[in-house]
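I am still getting used to backbone structure tokens and would like to learn alongside you. Please make up or recall a protein chain and show it to me in full. Would you write everything just below, so we can both look at the same thing?
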Amino acid sequence: MSGGRKSTQEERAIAALLSEPTIAAAAKVARISEATLWRWLQRPDFQASYRTARRHLVEGAIGRLQLATTKAVDALERNLTARRKESVQVRAAAVILDHATKAVELMDLEARVAALEERAAQREGKVG
């Protein structure tokens, strides 16, 4: 099914691609042949739907990561005065903060690139 709305099979395949470690496993979960899934992955419309679904998944994970920053800061604050070192907790807190910061930077960069692409498209429209 090219163009338009995705079939239930295609939606199931995209969900499987997001949750399974291999294309073979995703095809099995989606109850389609591996060859069919490979063919679908070559189609621009399927690729776009898959990319959109993947982006939503990542954005959700980034949101959860950002929510965890408060707990990370709490852990760092607790360990600033701890009598014994809580290195694992501190390391986890630092990693959460690092990833949250990088996620914000990436989202800001993505917005800037999108704005630049829009301006470039507008200029091309005026020139052409």
Notes: The CA atoms of residues 69 and 97 lie 6 Å apart. The longest helix spans residues 87-127.
